[in-house]
Amino acid sequence: MPLRNSIVIALTLCAGGLAGCSDDEPSAPYSVIQTFAGNGLQGAGQDSVPALNSALNLPQGVTAGPDGNLYIADWYNHRIRMVKQGVIYTVCGTGTPGDPIAGPPREVSLTRPTGVTFDADGKLIIFAWENHKVLSLDFTADLVQPIAGTGVAGFAGDNGPALGALLNLPVAGFYDDDGRLVFMDQANQCIRRIETGDITTFAGVPMQPGFVDSVPSAQAKFNLPTVASSLPGGRIVIDVSANIYVADTNNNRVRILEPEGPVPAILSPAHEGYNIRTFAGNGTQGFAGDGGPALNASLDRPSDVAVDSHGNVYIADTFNHCIRKVGTNGVITTFAGSPGSPNGLELDDVGDGASPTHAFLDRPTGICFDSHDNLYIADMGHNRIRVIWKDPDAHQ
User: pTM surpassing 0.85?
Assistant: First the structure.
């Protein structure tokens, strides 16, 4: 281990510095970053081996499942992979790109999937990005089948069956409290929603990239990458108050969709009114603003957003090579990564075991929290999944 990292670890793990440091002294929350999956090599990787020993290929998204396992959108391996008790497996995808049709999950071809979520019944919902489809994986039946999209890129089908709709790079989404699937249709520049099998546009003006803010959601405009040769962007997340956060990638902002008026204890289908405003970012591409209001900060093509159990918002500030945090007081700081520095002192020196702010990330794309508030990062350029433990001592 390089001397620099040894010093960082000592300073990080010993409360109050070197003086009074003891083996019994607890580590501070979020004081250590580690690799959770991936050996740093870009490749197909093996299954049924320790996750740390397997290669990944530009991982894009991470999701903590309700089963306690971590799910990875292994983008250029065209697979969804799962880490269970430290071992990695493929749950969907042959590894060869192709058009997904109904069938057993490991016999279904995917083309560059970008993320997953879960429905109320525990089915795995897959955003088959370059297939322009959304799929459902029923673990009990061992069956994958499309639930939205024909496979043709475009925009069509609103107010009709989702299976007959045209999508264009669906990237990520979630289920709301009413059981509706809400997802970002990236190249169509809008958020769409599926309810009882039918699809509508929920936010954004379809196929019109731009920036329109402080308006009802239907009048909003986003600016997201439009071609498959670009990196995915525009991921969304919902918090416990039904606020929806959007990584508005090419606008270099994070936007927030807020329900109009008081939020009912349980949102009903009739509660449709949302307004949009900027939550973080001044629209200038770059890195600036730490320690000040998030609205004054500069971001560089953010691609994902996550919210912890205390209401703090975290941003995958992708081309700043870091994770930014916006506290409940509206102040932005760097939570992990060294802005502007994607590589370490050596090719294998990414800063594991050190303070997260002394570690190196390379174009982090996906982030998520698990039920214990541990933060997982798809460190795409390093072909790793990183984790920042809330309680480092529990994982020594």
Answer: yes
Cα–Cα distance list, 137 to 185, 229, 365 (Å) = 20, 27, 24
Query: What are the angstrom distances between the C-alpha of 29 and each of 69, 98, 375?
Result: 22, 43, 11
Q: Is 267 exposed, middle or buried (0-12, 13-18, 19+ CB in 10 A)?
A: middle
Q: Could you give the CA distance from residue 137 to residue 34 in angstroms, rounded to a whole number?
A: 30
Lookup result for tokens 């939550």: 279
Digit-coded pLDDT (tens) for 75-100 = 999 999 999 999 999 999 999 999 99
Give the type of residue at 24.
D
159, 161, 107: which is closest to 134 by C-alpha?
Answer: 161
Give the other-Cβ count within 10 Å of 21's Cβ: 13
Phi then psi for residue 238, to 5 deg, are -115, 145
Residues 6+ away with beta carbon under 8 Å from 205 = 189, 190, 212, 218, 219, 220, 221
Tell me which amino acid residue 379 is: D
Side-chain-side CA neighbours of residue 375 (13 Å):
29
Which helix (H) or strand (E) segment holds residue 4: the answer is helix 3-13
List, for residues 2-25, the tens digit of each pLDDT value. Answer: 333 333 333 333 333 323 334 556
| Structure letter (DSSP) for residue 46 | -
Helix (H) or strand (E) holding 13: helix 3-13
Burial of 102 (0-12, 13-18, 19+ CB in 10 A): exposed
E strand intervals along 149-189: 160-161, 170-175, 181-185
